[in-house]
Every structure is written in structure tokens, then in C-alpha cells.
Amino acid sequence: MSAEPCCACLSPHEKRLQDKIAGKEDTYRNTPAHARVFEIIDSFDGKQPIIDIERAKFFTESMKQTEGEALVLRWAKAMKHIAENISVYIDDKQLLAGRCGCQGRYGILYPELDGDFLGQAVEDLPSRKTSPFSINPKDIPTVVNDIAPYWKGKTYHEDLNIHLPKDTHTLTYDDPEGLISRFIVNETSSFRSSLQWVHDFEKVLKRGFNGLKQEALDKLAALDPFSPTDNVEKKPFLEAIVIVSDAIILWAKRHAVLAREMAAKEKDPKRKAELLLIAENCEWVPANPARTFHEAVQSQWFVQMFSRMEQKTGTIISNGRMDQYFYPYYKKDVEEGRMNEDKAIELIECMWVGMAQFIDLYISPTGGAFNEGYAHWEAVTVGGQTPDGRDASNELSYLFLRSKREFPLHYPDLAARIHARAPERFIWEIAETIKEGSGFPKLINDEEVIPLHLAKGANFEEIYDYAVSGCAEIRMPNRDTYTSGCAYINYAAALEMTLYNGRMKKFGDKLLSFETGDPRNFTSWEQLWDAYLKQQLNFIKHAFIQQSIIIKLRARHFAAPMGSALHDLCMKHCLDLHTPQIPEGINLGYFECIGYGTVTDSLAAIKKLVFEDKKITLAQIIEAMEHNFEGYEDIQEMLRNCPCYGNNDNYADSIAKEIDRVSVEFTKKYAKELGVFLDLRLVPFTSHVPFGKVVSATPNGRKAWSPLSDGASASHGADRNGPTAVMLSNFNSKNYDLRERAARLVNIKFTPKCVEGEEGTEKLASFIRTFCDLRLWHVQFNVINRDTLVAAQRDPSKYRNLIVRIAGYSAYFVDLSPDLQNDLIARTEHTTVN
CA 309 to CA 291: how far, in whole Å? Predict the structure, then answer.
């Protein structure tokens, strides 16, 4: 059977893939803007990432020498030791210098996170089925004998594991050491040092690290020499800022030396000139304010890469509003004749290919399951509004969109801010970029985000200037102060425990929660609903217990001196970014609902068939579920044909809204005890797949161990009334009178045929306007034919470059596990935009 799809209409991305399979040349490869970066891509694309151990080695060496000192000071000294000793590289053809590890695709280690099981993990990673990494055999003894033993007994993960109460531990982990998740009430704080984050990059571009260092020196000089607070708390913090500023400047200057050495040996005069310019840039930035567009891009890149060495930020450090803080440098260079569109695209795409070589490595099995396909969310934000509330789109906004249409790479993760007054051209070009078919950009809605954060304490200037961060969240770089990873809660597991009296099939007869009674004996919907709510609220209770402990423990284990230097409030109060409470900050966190559509549809089916229409008993449904619907296909079909979330059906949507309301009312009542807006979020990454693997068959007709519904999207195949109905169900199910809510992720899959041509662009632009009018938070798109996905699964070698949208990020389809590939294939394929 042929592997090629037989689609009548292909997206541009699919067409390019088919041309490549047919041996045709890519029309963009030899254009002035793209030729260089295509050559760089060819040097690493498709190769398995390598673990570079240098960051871990030098970090550990320094931490051994500084025991007993303030943690923030130890961290800064460790960064200085890394900057002095880590290998520096400048890749062939590159116009930017700076990377965290060896050439090619690479990942780095964070033993402060994974040291308790790091030794075994590095030996297992090359054979891991999901997102494997290779390692030089010569490096394994260093990890096993020198790095891992020092961290044994010192890691945050071990500290958290021993502090969780027994009943919370039972719902969190499936082993005494806390290495295996139950995927019920899942903590996420132990496989990252911080939640997603955005630095104030503009601060570096305008002031340079010499300016930040001088601010710290001035504050040091002003300290009260007799104050215990100044001596014990403020002094080490400010000394850390001085040291880390020196560290990144030193690191940059080492690249300048390398560039001059390479230039001296270079025969090609054009490349020699490029290397000398790189050297000049690295000698000037990030020590000093940027003067040109090239210097601004280089300065930001150094900060971005040094931040990755400083800590493992969840979803990788995001890049903020590049079209805003780069724009003055671009505009000035264009006006003075140093820059044009093609040169600017070439430069920013040198950054994109640099991003693509750094792979965010998750050592823990749970972290790996959450982030399939070498997941990455280094969000670049375009559009939105200015701090005074005007439309912010500019020439760079369109340049970034053009790059996404022309450049076949799923880096960076491009996000566009939409608002009611966004220009028609901006919406049109977004629609055209979405039609390209690689999943960019994802959309975030100002009309939901801005008023919600005003209600949480932000001022207009701060929230108008927000940046997209991570998967679907947002950050106000100098006002947000919360960094603790939060819980993912398996609502479908709560439903299963309702139906099996506190137990789950996956875990046998073990009582995981408490008994709420045999549902076969329930005589009313209210009894079942009450039992379900008890299980759901119990899960949320334990998530909040987790978070209370997490908040108390993390500051003992993590510091971020460079991240703190870039935050106004940290500098003002001389407090590290990981301090639990920073005065004047807003602590914005969230807990996750996994399986929203699955639970809604299941409860709707039971309510309708059992308690209203009385067509079937709950005992019959449970019996069919226990047999995974084998031999009970008639019951399965009845369940699937009940009202479902995602169809603008008030019957199902009202249940979804009540599930949401109970959750947000809980956090409204109890989050204040944590000092956090710990709000409800529906953004699963890829966790709906592993979470589904612990949940047996459910009353919506879903088979055992298969994926749960994805984020705020409908269950697989349940959205029968088109994509607008999916949007309306999201609107119907939100409690707009409560502020204790965070992001909702919605996936929509269109066929290329339904958005074909100018008429298709108009329909898609209208759909985006509808999304904006409904005040929904997020939406993202796949524009692809099912046949293409099936062909790629059958013959992955031919479809190595097929990019698909997953969960807040795009990835190569062939890098995904079969489970996640099947999950994507199973998403409803909309043939109309209406």
C-alpha cells in the first residue's frame, strides 16, 4: 500500500513535504533570507540529542565548595564557575554566539533536581522509547561517580517526598521513593526549578549587565552596616547580583575571544568579516546597552541561553514581546540603511535554529510523559496592545509571521495576542500563517486575559504589556512573582473512584480515597453527583496540601540570581525570585483539570440514560465498562450518542460549568491560605495520554487506558456540530462571575480544503474574531489531512519533517509516541469553519 496521502487539497506544509518526497527542491532554500539557516538546519536536523554534562559538572564542583553560604550567593558563584569553564562554541554559518552545550542537538543536566536518580537515568535515556537522548560513554562515570553521589539526599524531590502526608502521598506517588507517579493528583514541581517564566529582556537591552551590576553596588553601599536584615539577607543577595552580572559578561567575552581566533584562521573574507562582527558584538553586549538590531538580538540570546544554564524553567524560558522590544533597534537600523527585511529574517532565524538545538531534557519518567516529542515552549509573543492600550502590531510582528510561513521549523513557539481592535491585516496574516499547516501561531485573547488580571490586582500598564509564557499562560515580567510548579488533577480518576467506591481498576482493591457508596444502589442523580463531588473535592484538597508544602520547601533548594536581577521587585526588596512571598508581587498559580470533556460526557450520559430516560441501569453501564465494552457495543453506542460537551448543547455544557464552578469556588475559599491565586486551568501538555493510562473504561464509551479529553477541547469524536460549537461550549461552561480561573487550551483541527483560497482565509479570520468576541483564553489549530498523519505513521522516514500542533507547542509527528500520534489522528477533523 502506498504511504502517500490521496488528499485533493494539501496545506502548504503538506505540499512541501510531498515535493521533498518527490525530490523537488524547496523554493525557499536558496533565497537570501533563508539559505544560511537551511545549511545550519541540515547539520543537526533529525539527529538524536546528546547529553552535555558540563553544566552539571561545574555547577556541582562549585556547590561542593560553598556549603554553608546563602543559597543565592552559592548559585551565583556556581554560575560564575560555569561561565569560566564551560566550553564555548560558535557554529559554522552562525551570526550569533552562545549555547549551553555541545554542537548539534543537545540537552543539559540539572542534578539539583534529578541527582537522587540521575546515575541510573543517564544509563537508561538512550533506550527510552519516548524522546531518547544519547550520552558519550566516557561521561557516564563522571555523572555516576562524581555528580550524582553529591546530590543524593540533597535534592528538592527527596525533601518533598518525605514531607507529603501519607494520604496525599498515596494519591501522588505509586512508590515509597516518589519516583513513579500515580497520575491522580500529580505534583509537577520536582521535575523543574520553576514554572514557565518570562524575563524583562528589554531591561538588558537598555541598561546592560554593567548597569544592573552598578545598581547592586549602589544598594550594597547604602546598606546599614549594623542591620542584621541587611547583613544576613540583603547583602548576600546583592553580592550575588554583582557576581552573576560579571559571570554573563565574562561568558560573552570568552565568545569574543573565540570569534577572533576563528577569524584569524578563516580564509573566506565574507565569513572572516562575520566572525569579527560577532567578536565586536560579544565584547559590547550584554555588558552594555545594545546599539543596533544585531547587538540587541545577540544580547537577548546570551540572556536566554545563560538563563537555561541557571535553572530548569518549566517549558523553557519564554522570549516575551520580541516585536516590541526589538522594534526600536530594527526601525533605527532600517532608517540608517544597515538593515532590511531579509537581513532581519536571517538574523532572527539564526536564533530560531539555535533554539532548535537546545532540547529540554526531562530525566524523570513523569516529566518525560508530560512533554513528548522533545516538547518546547520558548514562546515569542507578537501583537497585542501597548502599555497605554493601543494596538501594538508593527513591521516586526509581520516579519515573524512571514518567517513562520516560509521557514520549516517548529521553533520558536510563536504566539499572537488578539484583541477587539486588532487590524484586519494582522488577523488576515495570522489566518494565512495558520493555513500554512505547522500549527502556528497559537492565539491568546486580550479580551479575556486583561480584565481577569485587572481583577487579580494588576494595573492597566502591566497587563496591557503581558507576554505569553509557556504553553498557554501569560506573565507580567516585573509583577508576577510565583514560580512553584502546581498539581495536575485527574478528574476522570475521581469519576472512576465514584463508580468503584474509592478504588481504581489500575490499582486493584487498594482504597485510594474514601468510600462514597456502591453507585448501583443510588436512586437519584443527586446521589451520584454528590458522590462524584466528594471525590473531586478530595483530590483538590490534596493538591492544595501538596502546594502548601511545595511553597515552604522550594526556597531551600532553588535560587535564580540572574532572573532576580531582571525583576524590579526582586531588586527593590533584595529577595530572590524563588522567595515564597515578594512584597507588591502577584502570585499567579494554577491547578490542572485533566479529563474535563471525558467526565462531563460521562456524567451527562449517566444522568440522561439512567436517571431521566431510565433506558438502562447504572449496574449495566458498570458491567459494560468492566468488560471494556467488548460484547456490550450496543451500550457503548448508547453512551456515545448522549449529549456531549463541545456541541453547544446546554445539557452537557451545564454539567461542565458546574464541574468548573465547584473547582473555582474551592480555590476562592482556600487559596488565600497559601498566598497564591491557585486557579483552575485546563492545559494538559501531553499529560492527558499518561493520565488516561491509569483510568479504565468510562461512561462516555471511552475504552480503558486510552487518552482522556484534551484540555478544554471536546472528547475525541464527540464534537459533531462544528468548531464554532466547540467555542460556544467553552463559553457556556465558564463561570465568568468568578476570577479564580486561568488558561483553557482548545485544539481545533481543520482540513486544508475548508480553509482553501481567499474565501478560506476570510472564514478563518472570522472564526478568530468570534473567538475574540467570546472572551475565550486560547485556541490553536492543526490544518492537515488525516491521510497525511496516517501515511506518516506508516512510513515515518518519508515524513521526518512533518510538524503538528500538540498541546501548546508544535513537534515533529514522528517524534511522538504511537499513543500520542493516535490521539492526534483521532481528533475531530472539521471540514467547515462554521
Answer: 26
